[in-house]
Automatic annotation (TrEMBL):
GO terms for molecular function: transferase activity. It comes from the Bacteria. Gene3D superfamilies: Glycogen Phosphorylase B. Keywords: Transferase. This is Glycosyl-transferase. It comes from Vibrio cholerae O37.
Length: 605
């Protein structure tokens, strides 16, 4: 067996699709796979040494995203014409060249099957042609329906229809199809008569956290969310609901914990929505397990009905592994809705009304039996459906091979990051954007749009607004804009009472330590948390529930938890730690015994 993987993203650790491909490629025996990757020059790829010893060809794919062109009425016809012409040029000159190149590469590697990821115009156009040129079976892999991709990338109607036909043709010509969900597999089997199997992002069984069957008994509620914000209206509904309830549920304050590649949209206080950035799967599962409820929004928009029906969010699998109740906020026809109804691993909110969302959350919090059952069944669903054993079985059916490697045989494709070959590949990936005409042209157009916006703003402020007929009109607009901002600020900052950010956050296990601070200690400048628990999870929750965003957490030197463990665990949420000593003598004594890097030290006065 020798597989040619044709994809727009290689196995990597900083993109969702790359993570799924990484898990699948680990199953393939050494010497049984090669890559032909057409990379988007704009996307940053972090090459994993684990797969760097696989033969690969890296090429730049032509521009597929046309939403940088003006889409408003009056100019959209011109934009569609440019899009149509650009796609024609791409198909006739660039994609045809990539097809020939991929066929030559596949022949040199003696491949006997093509595994093509149908994501974007380029790989869709290439898939069937490459398999025919190599005279080998085609196995296609689908993340999402093409209609969603076409709309998100502003394709013109003619191009969208043509590429959709090529997509359907590639599916029909496939020996086997890997799909994003069970409903999608059933659709392709009934519509095209092809063998299909859902191949959904899965994780090692060790990632599963013990289900927490009771709401944490402290002063707040943490709602966790991971992933991208393609369901923006649903997210806005959550924010609006929390604002209307003064960020409280069941008489407890609420904090949103967000993990992902982009900061959440909308207006809110950073103290209420705590964005922790991108985390690897292990750390993400750990942080989500500290939350009380996991929120999964999915689009109600009728334009995205096909996506909601046939796709399956990868974050949902991670939520199941975290062992906490899931609140799915999406339509009744969505694939996760059907999965939850079958497995009873969460609750569904099928409305965009904030009151409906609020009532569902309140009911989940107050109904102990429901909360406990959702947590238990979430972990059961993960173990039964989304471990690597399940993934390997599905992938073996899809790729047509029973000789896949087991969990213990990792790193068979490894190449040291110090190796010259690895450095050469890494250099090609990092420098591909600067040699790409589409990347340079795209950058110039974006810059031109920004300059046009700045010029228009300057003309409005300096020229048009000073002309008598328009002067009063623009003065009123500016006044109302300022008033709206002022009123929003008053609402967000609780009637304008803005509390200064404290200088330090201190966590101690001893009330005596607090009592010993003395009267000269200005407690208004500090937050002091008393926690008698030795649980790291308890300490991190207490930190996440505070009303401030503080970068360093200080502990008193008498804390019984190992310093290195504290540093490691708080690093997962992007925070440093520090130690406060009673005296310089205590500090010197501590430093003689053990010195720690990246830890701040302070002495009480």
């Amino acid at each position: 067996m020798k597989i040619l993987l044709l994809s727009d993203i290689p196995p990597c650790e900083n993109l969702t699709a790359g993570l799924v491909l990484s898990a699948l490629v680990r199953f393939v025996p050494k010497g049984s796979i090669c890559f032909y990757i057409v990379l988007n020059p704009i996307i940053d790829i972090k090459l994993n040494p684990e797969f760097a010893n696989i033969p690969m060809r890296l090429e730049t794919k032509p521009n597929e995203n046309w939403n940088f062109l003006p889409q408003r009425r009056g100019l959209n016809k011109l934009s569609r014409l440019i899009t149509f012409a650009g796609e024609k040029v791409n198909e006739q000159f660039i994609v045809s060249k990539r097809i020939k190149d991929a066929i030559e590469f596949g022949k040199s590697q003696n491949v006997d099957r093509v595994w093509a990821v149908l994501q974007g115009q380029t790989t869709i156009r290439m898939a069937e042609a490459v398999a025919k040129g190599l005279e080998v079976p085609l196995h296609t892999h689908v993340w999402d329906p093409f209609s969603w991709w076409a709309d998100a990338h502003a394709l013109d109607r003619v191009t969208k229809n043509r590429v959709q036909k090529q997509f359907n043709k590639a599916i029909k010509a496939s020996q086997f199809v890997a799909t994003a969900s069970k409903p999608m597999a059933e659709l392709y089997h009934s519509e095209f008569g092809v063998n299909s199997v859902p191949v959904i992002a899965s994780h090692p069984i060790e990632l599963a956290k013990s289900p927490v069957t009771e709401l944490t008994n402290d002063e707040g509620i943490l709602i966790g969310m991971a992933g991208q914000f393609y369901a923006s209206k649903e997210w806005e509904c959550l924010i609006k609901m929390l604002e209307c309830s003064n960020w409280r549920l069941n008489n407890k304050k609420v904090k949103l914990i967000v993990l992902g590649p982009q900061k959440p949209p909308g207006e809110y206080l950073d103290t209420n929505v705590k964005y922790l950035g991108w985390k690897d799967q292990k750390d993400a599962a750990y942080i989500l397990s500290l939350c009380d409820i996991l929120y999964c929004p999915y689009p109600f928009d009728k334009k995205l009905k096909e996506v909601s029906t046939f796709s399956f969010p990868s974050k949902f699998v991670l939520y199941l592994a975290a062992g906490r109740p899931i609140v799915f906020h999406g339509p009744d026809y969505a694939s996760p809705t059907k999965y939850i109804a079958d497995k009873q691993c969460g609750v569904v909110v099928g409305s965009l009304l904030p009151t409906t969302l609020y009532n569902t959350l309140e009911n989940l919090i107050n109904d102990r039996t429901l909360y406990s059952n959702c947590a238990k069944k979430a972990q059961t669903a993960f173990i039964n459906d989304f471990t690597l054993n399940s993934l390997r079985e599905c992938f073996a059916r899809f790729i047509g091979c029973d000789e896949l490697v087991g969990d213990l045989e990792n790193n068979q494709h490894y190449l040291s990051s110090e190796d010259n070959k690895f450095k050469e590949i890494e250099h090609r990936i990092s420098n591909r954007k600067y040699s790409s005409f589409s990347y340079v042209a795209h950058g110039k157009l974006i810059l031109a749009k920004r300059n046009i916006v700045k010029t228009r703003e300057w003309l409005r402020k300096k020229v048009v607004s000073r002309i008598p007929p328009f002067k009063r009109f623009y003065l009123e607009i500016d006044y109302y804009n300022r008033e709206v901002k002022r009123l929003n600020k008053i609402i967000m900052f609780q009637n304008g009472k803005v509390v200064d950010k404290p200088e330090l956050l201190i966590i101690t296990q001893s009330k005596l330590w607090i009592d010993g601070l003395g009267d000269e200690f200005d407690r208004a400048k500090y937050i002091i948390i008393l926690s008698e628990s030795n649980s790291i999870e308890c300490l991190i929750r207490k930190f996440l529930l505070i009303d401030y965003d503080i970068s360093i957490v200080y502990f008193d030197s008498n804390i019984s938890i190992d310093i290195e463990i504290l540093k490691s665990e708080f690093k997962k949420i992007g925070k440093k730690i520090g130690i406060i000593f009673d005296s310089n003598n205590n500090l010197e004594s501590f430093m003689k015994k053990e010195a720690h890097e990246d830890i701040e030290y302070l002495v009480k006065k």
